Amino acid sequence: MPTQVLMPALSPTMEKGNLSKWLKKEGDTVKSGDVIAEIETDKATMEVEAVDEGTLGKILVPEGTADVAVNTPIAMILADGEDAASLKGGNGAQPPQAAKAEQPAAAPAEKSEPVKKADAPTPAKTGTAKPPSAEIMPEPEVPEGTELVTMTMREALRDAMAEEMRRDPDVFVMGEEVAEYQGAYKVTQGLLEEFGARRVIDTPITEHGFTGLGVGTALAGLKPIVEFMTFNFAMQAMDQIINSAAKTRYMSGGQVTVSIVFRGPNGPASRVAAQHSQDYSSWYSSVPGLKVIAPSTAADAKGLLKAAIRDPNPVIFLENELLYGHSSPVPKLDDYVLPIGRARVVRPGTDVTIVAWSMGMSYALKAAEDLAKENINAEVIDLRTIKPMDTETIIESVKKTGRLVTVEEGWKQSGVGAEIAARMMEQAFDYLDAPVERVCGKDVPMPYAANLEKLALPSVAEVVKAAKAVCYR
After folding, report:
1. Which one of the listed residues 49, 139, 276, 437 is annotated catalytic?
2. β 65-69/200-202 pair status
3. Comparing 16 with 391, which gets the higher pLDDT?
4. Omega before 388 within 30 of 0, i.e. cis
5. CA angle, 43 as apex, 161 and 10 as ends, to 5°?
């Protein structure tokens, strides 16, 4: 199959770029890493590298084209033996004007596209031959007949903060570029305009400093939401998070609460290399005093962030950069709050349990669809909260299926999957018909090269292979 070359992003906030020059022409032989084009924005110029070996078979966007959306196919690379004629009608590439970039909509949630009414979810019976669709089911807490609106996770997070700031004057947002620039990922879009500079605060570029300031305000009774541009930068603030925020309530005998939310993108994104791709799910979940949340849908992001802001304990709220632009249904309720510490069975099944969270759910749900084609009925659980962990939901599923696979982008050593496996050994050993399988990121620093990055991350094929292994297939 031809390989698509996509318009890359020069920054997390880039939406469009100009294709200024092609350095290779159609028919030229290219190798992975060869510079084939130059793109530019108002901020920078970047070289585009070939992501595979072959022949530059077709240029889809001519040089000099302005405002090409991120992730738009700009060229096709043919493998050995492929002919340019094979691209006609079958390459799946869209012209630039038809490409749909995953970017935030400016309209608030109330004006988002309405979708069908939510019906009461009906659990599948054990032994059902045909698995249900992998479409995310409505949250059980939602009243029957509630209207759903489609919005991105970015919008859902913004609405959650805005609603809590209207509800409680002690809630405020602080971080790098959260005010004037409206957030590095536009999650705080519109908050400065509504709440002003006293409650939406741009900070200096010093995580060590502004995290300590945020913890101090929480000790004084306020409820800060501290945004990290990426959780990789939070490494500078580990002392404030772990030694101050996580421990003070215990050390004060409950006399001092630390109601604070640390939120921002976590884990691998797209070619951001080793120092910007760490998954902190297991790191923070090992610390007493912290709650750790990692949603995979817009509805969960909204409901759990509202709960986190109201919680008297410090909460680590881990988002995924690649999920910010993903849209999904969110209940249109005046106050949609989800319980912290409750997992959700997204797809009922009988043969094998797959547990995932955040970006791991994308691998799990696609794998479940592939497994269904081979008559393996997978039950998929979205963990949602890493700590406190909903062990009971996993155990009840394992009692039914007898088999378990965990999926995460973090490393295998001391990972969340290792914790789940240990708990199942301790509490559900008699129900397991096979050893627990873990699908994780590889034990290497994240490579920058696209082909190596792909190898370092989990894949749907690996999840399918693991599920087959525990099913002895």
Report:
1. 276
2. unpaired
3. 391
4. yes
5. 70
